[in-house]
Amino acid sequence: MITFNQVIIGHEKPLFEVKLNQLESGKVYALIGSNGSGKSTFIQTLFNEIVPVKGEIYLNQKELKLYSKRELALNLAFVPARFPEVEFMKVKDFIGLGRTPYLNAFGTKTEKDLEIIEHFIQLLDIQHLADKFTTELSDGERQLCAIAKALTQETPIILLDEPTAFLDYKNKQRIIDILEQLANELNLLILFSTHDLSSIAKQTIQKIGIEANTQSNEILPKMLPINEQFPFDNLLDKFYK
Amino acid sequence: MQSRLKFLGVIVLLIGLIVLHLFAGSTNVTIDDFYQSLVNFEPSNTTHIIARDLRIPRLLITLIAGGGLAIAGILMQTLFRNPLAEPHILGVSSGASLFVALSIMSGWFVFQTDYGIIASALLGAFAFGIILLSIAKFVRLQSSLLLVGIMIGSFSAAFISILQTWSEANQLKAYTLWSMGSLQQVSLNQIPVITILFLLVVGLSFFLVKSLNAIVLGSANAAALGVQLKHVRMLIILISSTLTGLITAFCGPIAFIGMAVPNLVKLIFKTQDHKTLLLGSLFIGAIFLLICDIVVQLLAQHLLVPINAITAIIGAPFIIYIILKRWS
Lengths: 241, 328
Prior knowledge:
The structure holds two protein chains of two kinds. By secondary structure, chain A is of the alpha/beta class.
């Protein structure tokens, strides 16, 4: 669980004010907002890479900034927007990198590590990809592998930066369904940023928006929970310039 | 399993080349001569001198220089996520050269001893490694970093040429000989120091395997996996510049191994696991330089060729092949 206490997110200059109380386990959160509104900054802040301009963020009742890098890696997993272009990397080795925080300096995987990797490969039904190189995969397959890697990290929270950006319509739906299913079955807190408003129309997905600040430069935009019905034509003006 | 089989092949090849290297010189030295020279050395016996004081140090420094430069190369390629990164093209060895030139031409005796030159080379390589690391933070494009390295190289070359015009004849000769690269400058009594330092830093590099494997995915990914990027970056620069400085001090600047060997290792083992890549680079780097030095020794009866020329003649076409394969 992540809780916010009067937080202002920003990097050097303040970007927006967080008007959420908390993010809970077992739920999927979709974060929307125009380009440059601060979605990535928000995710980086949760990773302690950027310090909030004001206020405190708590991760399981402990203040976020008190977490060491490794402790953080045991609580938060990250799926970046771009799949890393690396040659000669087998899918199962890529997925296995999720075990990094649990391994010794030499990177030796134990029986248990291998079982966990195998388990999540089966859970996402990508056994047929395991021995391929990551460079041979389609964008949809890559996204599944990136999620599998995050799962092997066995963290209660997974953050994804635009996981549907490079996918066709069917794959977008599939990834979002999988994220929902994982949040339910494994009681995970999943938060992802996106621009695909139609893909997140479902009631079961919690929506969060960062306002587009159109009125005045004096007032900071707010990050708000969105309770209104989708499709939200009227909200487009509010969250997109 | 498959990679174990490949390693077996690599080790067999390495052993074969070690034997070939020991017996490649123009003087005929038998196994018995090697054995006798070690257990029962006679200072008046020329064959013993050739075996113990020339052949064995030359073999060991060839193994160390080949393996060490390849390890420095793979470390820098992973750190900068650039398959063409290596100490030579990134200007780290030019730092060692500049500092060695300064110490040879300073005229101060302390700097002209073996240890003075080693210390200068280590210091120069490390200083330039740090400069490179701090510039790399601001460089987004892969090719820009290589250009930065080339500029650092030209910058040092300019200073070295100024130093050369000021220096005396014997200093100039000492520097010029050093800069041509040679595997014959090392004497037996220097070998222990070199070997210990080499094993220490190469051993240290294996403690970075987990972090290196994660860094391959980029810094955002690696940080999210709990990797202490700042520490790891510093350690990589420390290890690769120590190897570069050490080897450059004794053998002069040797190009192309750091770039060619790790790419060859990736082609052979088809993996991104750095336990395999580091071990593979260590062995295949040694193999590469052994082959080059055997060629030098075979040619020596007809003409003298510096080791640098051979590494370039074999290495440069391979690197062009890598570039074509990757970016065309």
